[in-house]
Amino acid sequence: MGYITYGKTRSKRGQVELVPEEERIKVMGTHEKLKTPVEHEVIMERLLKNRMLNPNSRRNIFPLSGLLYCEKCGFRMRFRVGENKKQGQHWSALCYHQYKDGSKCEQRGK
Question: Among positive and negative, which fits the CA dihedral 71, 72, 75, 76?
């Protein structure tokens, strides 16, 4: 957005630590702005949504992650990779939802 920030981190005894936002030096630069404040908000929203996803699904290991929902309880299903001698490696989608009374969803997997 056209700003230059100095002093984001500092080192103490070999350990790097982040400096609080109010202690950083922030000045308007003379270079061309790369994004508008509206674009910045959209980018920050997207980054926040990405943090909520499982790291495996961000790496595209499980292409259906976040798309399968349990038919009985309506919660998202998780993937598990299994392996046996006859079938080799296989994936299964499991529902791990637990109700407030402590009982588990009856749908155990597909």
Answer: negative
- Strand ranges inside the chain, DSSP E: 3-6, 9-12, 15-18, 25-28, 78-84, 88-94
Question: Which residues are within 8 A (CB) of 62 and not within 5 positions of it... i.e. 6 or more apart?
Answer: 56, 79, 91
Closest listed residue to residue 78, CA positions, set 99, 59, 58, 64? 64
Give the pLDDT mean for 74-88.
81
Residue type, 39: E
pLDDT digits (tens, 9 = 90+) for 29-38: 887 888 888 9
Half-sphere exposure (Cβ direction) of 76: Cα atoms closer than 13 Å: 8
97/46 Cα distance (integer angstroms): 26
Amino acid at 1: M
